[in-house]
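Final report, closing paragraph on structural work. Over the funding period we assembled a curated collection of sequence-structure pairs, and we close with a single example.
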Amino acid sequence: AAWAGAEIDADTYAEESEEPGQNCLQDDQKLLSAPVRTYIQKLSAKVEIAAGFRMILLVPPQRVRDDPQKRTPYITGMRQALGAGSATLVLVADPGAPAQQLEVFAGSKIRDKLQNFRAFAASVASTFAEPSYVASAGPEGVVMSAFENLAAAILEASEAKGEKDTVYECGGSALPEDKVRTILGEKRP
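Its predicted structure, as stored:
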């Protein structure tokens, strides 16, 4: 390998070591059906190709759910293992957890390109973790909706004026479903 003994960052490693959409999903609860897993990989590849940002979905095992002493190191370790860097967004989804059902970790390049992203991501997390939404959509639907909403915002930002250096202003709330469908141009499984 050309990298033997060389120091490289996570973004370079991810760009040079895999196809877009690969290594974008770790579902330790076996929460997602095969068609939804394929759909998430497809969306992740679409975002990576169009915007240059990786999206990773991480569903931690239930055994770390209620123990921050286990949960935090697990999430940190998985983010590192999956090559999350400054151009990566990681959605940690645990719809059955009593708290922190959806957490978004965005790399610095994403936060630089999408202003107000933290407020937008917090809104996505709270919107799709609402008990009434969880009851109607189910755990798999919650995860899919949150991932789609984040992907749509990144894709919309990448299309803004078509220039790499353009900064996109995120709204303070999750995108409406019809707008997400239009931006993604994908049919749900």
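The two ends are 38 Å apart (CA to CA). Residues 120 and 172 are 5 Å apart (CA to CA). We thank the funder for supporting this effort.
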